[in-house]
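In this supplementary section we document a worked example of the pipeline. Step one takes a protein sequence of length 193 as its only input; no multiple sequence alignment statistics are reported here. Step two produces a three-dimensional model, which step three serialises into structure tokens for compact storage. The input and output of this example are shown verbatim.
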Amino acid sequence: MRLFSKIIVFVYTLIFAIVGVCLIFISLHMEGRYDLSIILEPLMNFSNLHLVIGLSGVLLILVTLSLANFSFKKFQTEKTIGYATNEGQVIISLGAIEDFIRRLTQQLPDVKELRSDVFVTRRGIEIESRVILWSTSNIPNITERVQSVIQGQVQKLLSGIDKPVLVNVHVTKIAQRDQEKNKKPKQEIPFLR
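The serialised model returned by step three reads:
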């Protein structure tokens, strides 16, 4: 999908650059100063020019529609998850799960800050966590612990849902603890006159 995105960005950049250059030429009244027929004459003499222009238009429309479809699907991701019980249906907001994860990891001493995004996909419930750790922590151990705590507690919280919980942890920053907080304050000696 990344290659497709790069191609779309390249095509749109090229189109907007050409339109921008044309607008600059028109605004500066340069269309009469430069003989553009040198460039346009070989194009106009091309026998299948109407076919190439038509296919380019169709291709541009298809690329635009697929980009719009992809964008709308991404923006319309499910914001809730639900399951049915004997008494009725239960719907849980993904934001509530994100808040639960944030409060859950506040008890971990090596984690300074954790922010999570929860997504419901075909593979299951995916949790993307961005973590800021203290510099004194052991990164492999604490990230594994964060993953296991989040996965275990979210699975326990969502016991009525059969989807697996996948936790991805991204360490975004390693913070230094303030040394001044750990030091004892110095006693000041009053100035004598």
